[in-house]
């Protein structure tokens, strides 16, 4: 009797220890040899083991699978960026996260958490740059499409004032809009229908999913279509005009940006 209680306890103990030890999606800070990108989304996926924690030799399929598993973002919303990302290096079918800092491939000026390439470090999170978003939508504890567009306008104004080499064409505006729609959509709290500042700030500052703070993975897949309404609000609030024209960029049989 005593023995079976003891063995039952030991089995229960080993199961719970296994669950902790083998939870491959816990957040772990990158080691000195791991590489990370200018993208808080990809970095978060790597920090939680949805992408290789090394940040190296990552395929397009790895990224598409990780985005569904970690954020419930569907392939259609990121596949163009993922494919273009392959051009950041020489390997035929994989990329390294740090190579994605290549200026004007996907990386662009007027970011919300990184400096412009011509102004310094365009790879790592910078709290001074991020303070525009951190302090946006004063008086309430959430961000929305209006505040996201206002942040984009302010970040572009800063780049235009300080960076004589700024690149600001329709391509950059489309990419920047999509990036803001991502943070608003992923961290939209189903309980309140808004995007808590706290979730977004943890994502940018720590490149961590705010699970301990109450975030849960979206139940509905985030797609290019699902982001259209908030992208319209963002674009309207950003009051954007181009600095240079760009040639039409063909990125798929039905998509020209
Ligand atoms: C998996 C879903 C993704 C999410 C949630 C996401 C989210 C974001 C966000 C919020 C930013 C803005 C950072 C800033 O302006 O400071 C960003 C930037 C960036 N993303 Fe992603 N992204 C995703 C997928 C991708 C993919 C597939 C690629 C290409 C392989 C990519 C490459 C980049 C790059 C290079 C930047 C830097 C742009 C810049 O600020 O200069 N991202 N991403
Ligand atoms: C990535 O691929 C290269 C070339 O095949 C290889 O030398 C390297 O060890 C790989 N790195 C990781 C972390 O898988
Ligand atoms: C702007 O670009 C030109 C040409 O690449 C370069 O010579 C110059 O140093 C750049 N200026 C700044 C402020 O980055
Ligand atoms: C952060 O960005 C600000 C504004 O561009 C810059 O002055 C500062 O040097 C940056 N800090 C680091 C550590 O790069
Ligand atoms: C975003 O939040 C601000 C502050 O509450 C509000 O004034 C604005 O109307 C909101 N925008 C949208 C699109 O709901
Ligand atoms: C957030 O979720 C609510 C419903 O829960 C929805 O009405 C709203 O459009 C969503 N916002 C974003 C940015 O996804």
Automatic annotation (TrEMBL):
Keywords: Heme, Iron, Metal-binding, Oxidoreductase, Peroxidase, Signal. Residues 1-20 form the signal peptide. Residues 23-229 form the Heme haloperoxidase family profile domain. It comes from the Eukaryota. Belongs to the chloroperoxidase family. Its cofactor is heme b. Transmembrane segments: none annotated. InterPro entries: Chloroperoxidase, Chloroperoxidase-like_sf. This is Heme haloperoxidase family profile domain-containing protein. Gene3D superfamilies: Chloroperoxidase-like. One of its GO terms (molecular function) is peroxidase activity. PANTHER family: PEROXIDASE STCC, STERIGMATOCYSTIN BIOSYNTHESIS PEROXIDASE STCC-RELATED.
């Amino acid at each position: 009797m005593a023995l079976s209680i003891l063995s039952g306890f030991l089995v229960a103990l080993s199961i719970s220890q296994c669950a902790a030890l083998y939870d491959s999606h816990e957040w772990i800070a990158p080691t000195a040899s791991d590489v990370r990108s200018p993208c808080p989304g990809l970095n978060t996926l790597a920090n939680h083991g949805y992408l290789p924690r090394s940040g190296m030799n990552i395929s397009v399929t790895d990224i598409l699978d990780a985005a569904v598993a970690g954020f419930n973002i569907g392939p259609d919303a990121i596949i163009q960026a993922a494919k273009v990302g392959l051009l950041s290096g020489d390997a035929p079918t994989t990329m390294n996260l740090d190579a994605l800092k290549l200026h004007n491939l996907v990386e662009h000026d007027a970011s919300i958490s990184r400096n412009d390439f011509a102004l310094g470090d365009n790879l790592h999170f910078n709290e001074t740059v991020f303070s525009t978003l951190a302090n946006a939508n004063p008086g309430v504890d959430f961000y929305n499409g209006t505040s996201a567009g206002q942040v984009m306008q302010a970040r572009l104004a800063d780049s235009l004032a300080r960076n004589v080499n700024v690149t600001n064409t329709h391509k950059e505006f489309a990419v920047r809009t999509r990036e803001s729609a991502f943070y608003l959509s992923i961290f939209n709290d189903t309980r309140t229908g808004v995007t808590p500042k706290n979730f977004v700030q943890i994502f940018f500052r720590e490149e961590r999913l705010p699970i301990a703070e109450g975030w849960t993975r979206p139940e509905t897949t985030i797609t290019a279509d699902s982001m259209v309404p908030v992208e319209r609000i963002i674009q309207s609030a950003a009051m954007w005009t181009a600095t240079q024209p760009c040639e039409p960029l063909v990125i798929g049989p039905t998509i020209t940006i």
